[in-house]
Design brief:
By secondary structure, this protein is α+β, with helices and mostly antiparallel strands. The protein contains 11 helices and 13 strands. The strands form 2 sheets. Strands 2, 3, 4, 5, 7, 10, 12 and 13 form an 8-stranded antiparallel sheet that branches. Residues 231-328 form the HTH araC/xylS-type domain.
Length: 328
Amino acid sequence: MNRTNCITVDYSQILPPAWSATPVAEIEFVAHSPIHADWGHLSLQDLMLPEIHLVKFDGQLSQNLHLQQCGSWESTTVDTCIFLEGAIESDFAGLQKRMRMDKGQHNFVYKPEVNEHHYMNAQSLSILHLSIDRLYYSQLLCDQEKWQANLKEKLLNKQPVSGSLDDMQMTPKMFGVVHDILNCSLSGNLRKIVIEAKVLELVALQLDQLVKRDQASTHQKINAKDQDAFYALRDFLHQSFADDHSLRTLSKTFGLNEFKLKKGFKEIFGTTVFDYLHDLKMEHARRLLQDAGAYVNEVSGLVGYKNPNHFSTAFKRKFGINPAQYRN
């Protein structure tokens, strides 16, 4: 990340001062006036629930940006950031190591002291930001699980903490939950219930990933070159999940032997290559049925199944309902 030749911008120039107050709970995402500046343009939408504030950022940076926030107040939220497009490096008061997120990654941070600096290069941006009340978040954590209990103690004692200072990859299921949050078709109080439930599901998936990473922390660290290969493989699967793949072909394409590919992919992404592929197919199929109203036979082919019956069986095993019923 290039930190030179940056334009420095204060948060107050992006987030209106009214957002620091507690607004009346909204059921719909509210679009704010687009921001057009020398450094680029940005559109913002937000939705406020009693304990949760969601903000969606989309835009284009034409220059390197240094975004700073320094205040005399105390932060009372755990902030989760999901990068759907773009990348960022961040420094937070109380956290010694720099945090970085790239496209398809997520993380969370609690920093009671409002003193943070973010650096972004010229790029396209699409970010979902969740602010969850610290005490409400603490109540979600399990005292019997060591990692969660440690996190809860830090939150209750107002100690700065982050989910991880290493890469945390979005899973197909996480992408599906984000899609559901941003495209909920219900209205009124039912919409509020669904979005809050989906936010909690996203928190649960994030915590589950962190707990599993903590349990696997004794594994040998994967070198940077191989990590790049695994991330390239992950991106390739997202683009070609409907195609036929084999470990042999993938190993040859990305310069990894089959044993290293199987072991390393599971260490980084928490699942096997083919389970990851299966989840991509099923999540895409679910969205096609739900949002586009596509027919089952059509969806079956679009996600790489030659036999619609095999697709229907896999879909029901994944979601507990056959695709025709789900579509209706």
